[in-house]
Amino acid sequence: MNYPRPEQDFSPVHSLIIRSVSSQVVMEAVNFKLFDTLELKPASLKELAEYFEFDELKLGSLLDLLVSYDLVQDNNGQYSNTYLATEYLVSTSPLYQGLAMGLTMDFCTGVIRDMGELLKGNKSQRDDSDKKWAATDAMEGTAQESLSGGLHATVDAISLLPGFDDFRLMGDLGGNHGNYTMSVLARNPQLNGVILDLPHVVPLAEQRCRDNGFGARVKGVAVDMREEELPALDFDLIFASHVLYACRGNLKPVLEKVSKSLRSGGWFCANHYAKTGSPMSTQTIASLEVITTFAGYFSHFIEPDILEQELKECGFGNFRRTWSDSSKGIMLVSAQKL
Predict the structure, then answer these.
(1) What does the pLDDT look like over 272-316, one tens digit per residue?
(2) Fold of 128-337
(3) CATH no. for 11-88
(4) Which PROSITE patterns does the UniProt record give (predicted)?
(5) Which of 110, 133, 176, 298 has a CB 3.0–4.6 Å from the CB of 248, allowing a cystine?
(6) Res 180 pLDDT > 60
């Protein structure tokens, strides 16, 4: 046969397909607590295979892959965690990300499973996606993700807003796990918080705040920002993190509701992915958008210029921008009600 000679290099596509197993390997290692085990002491392949009752050859290839991603190090046949794994993949670490990783993987699994039907518009994941936020594991997963980078810079920026020490009431729009509310309240002992979230989310959010010692200062109010007005409580501060994108196709009505519930001179702070100036690769940005749109949302990104223009039309000004998590391209946009 006179087959045509290839002119293009297919290896990038081939490598992409081969590497698709990597995320599942990392997730599986977290689930069977490999990193917990290695945190106790280094171990050889033989010792690990015996301990977990795994096939030695297969476990060896799994360990090689983890070494290639700098999650495990091999010191003359003795395997141990890298600092990255110790900080994020050991279940007893305060910054553990296992549930956050599992939540993202669940979204990916749903997209992959139903991709054909979703592309045709024969199926919608939006209702299922919204319901996930009330599951305990999902709430803890989003809480874990907030700890992996953006929380501290966000709280730092909010605490530097003019008049912050005089703030007395904060609203957390789509506050879910309450990490941002509790962290902001920790900077101002006179400040109380209200988590504004869907009815099936609020009880879990309130309980989580009670469990963390903020029960007396945080309450929940059930509200669907898409359909209902926000409570007119003259908030000093309203904060929203990774929630406005749910209304990305119809953002202005939500911002008008935010304005009505803020006192004059109050601040609105919105924390979201931005493509402009993002250090994320184009492949990562595009992949995140596939997950987001197939899950039933318009986009996971809100560009600061667009958001500020919408806010300006709703009576806001004195805009501030801060990269709350520069490595992930997450920006905090703050605006004052004029």
Answers:
(1) 999 988 888 899 999 999 988 888 888 889 899 999 999 999 999
(2) Rossmann fold (3.40.50)
(3) 1.10.10.10
(4) SAM_OMT_II
(5) 298
(6) yes
